[in-house]
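Let's practice the habit of predicting before peeking. Look at the sequence and jot down your guess about where helices and strands might fall. Then scroll down.
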Amino acid sequence: MMDVAVNVIMVVYGAAMLFIFLHSISDAHLIYHYLKASQKETGLSSSVIFQPKVTVQLPLYNEMYVAERLLNAVASLSYPQQQLEIQVLDDSTDETSTFIADKIKALRSSGVNIQHIQRNNREGYKAGALKNGLSKASGEFVAIFDADFIPSPDFIQQTIPSFSDSAVGMVQTRWSHVNKNNSLLTNLQAMALDGHFSIEQNGRNAAGFFINFNGTAGVWRKQCIIDAGNWQADTLTEDLDLSYRAQLKGWKFKYLENVTAPAELPPLISALKSQQFRWTKGGAETAKKHLKTLLFSRQPFNVKWHGVFHLVNNLGFVSIITCALLTVPLLFVKEHYPSYSLYFKYVTFTVFSFFVFGLHYSIAYSKNSAGTISNKLPGFLKTFPLFMSLYLGLSLNNAIGVLEGYFGKKSGFIRTPKFNMTGKKQNTFSNQYVQQKLSWLTITEGLFALYFTYGIVQAVYLKNYVSVPFLLMAATGFIMVFVWSMQERKMKKIPVKQTGD
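Done guessing? Here is the structure:
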């Protein structure tokens, strides 16, 4: 019976490691294309070739802390007023709506063409709001900004020229971070997002592979949205869903790394977990929806290969938590089952995956950090292990989202609380949208922290020092997530003032 259990562990562990290895091959290919494209990088021209009508859509739901900042930024866009239309897609159920109405009235009196569009319900969540607004939009192009973004005045001037090619259906820009240095948590998130926007988006786009609209800080050709089937709410990642439908219909996407859109990073672990859960679950739902179509499409092999790993990349969290949990029993297998020694030699190929992962984020860190290489290296070496630890600590939360997505468990669109961060260090927060209940997930994360700490002790006792670094990062990650989650329960709670359904 014990031999059967050991065989099962070895097969499951091997399958998880194989997925990570194959994904790292895909990632290495993207790094190659990113570096190749960087050598040919040219300066960005901001001259406007043409000035079509543009509709700016601002989907909002209970955003009392950041609504004014967003409206002020969008009202300051330097684009001909007669060619600019702003839609505030307000699904709020609290005092945000009243504040927005007053703000819009003031902006209209100063000549801004801005509409306040409200619905009787949140049907379709963000996708439903965008679709409803699109039916009323007069612009040929549609720029979309989430509540936590602060677009620069020349944003439209920098993006619209890319649509001079009639085949281009969407232009995505890079996110920058107004509160990157607020805390360790925001700093580590910035590293993750910089890796995505620098290596993944740029590498895919440079090679002609599919990329995705990131839900905000991008511009769509209205005809592209309609031709691809409009916004649909059957996944939690309506942005990724529409991106694949549009590109599978032949529309081209363009990514502009040199155009940035400042935004706020979630400063609390609960907000980050909520955001990550929605992204990973929605990604799994989108993969279920489009994998078959992609595989049987007439796209080249490389486009299909990268498209598949793009859609299923969140399975990496399932693989990571599986490997982490099985590392502890594998300590005893290695000690008491010498017949598996060859197996353990084979799995050392995963060192390649770690190297690729490190290279991916070191390039992005260097690209997005100030100073010389000699100054950046110590910062990266200090930050990267903590970055890996954090996302190991989030792997349980994210893996649950992925599995719910693939098994078809439906859930609502849970927005990420915003805080109107200033970029200064801030240790206390008051926010009426933050949930402070002690969940079974937080308790489990605390138990996992103990489990991996036990694993470190056993690894040292059995002199299996090779496993210590990974177990140390896993223990550190779950301790970080658990401690931060418990600290948030002490935050001051402000009751939400509801204004209706």
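How did you do? The first helix runs from residue 2 to 39.
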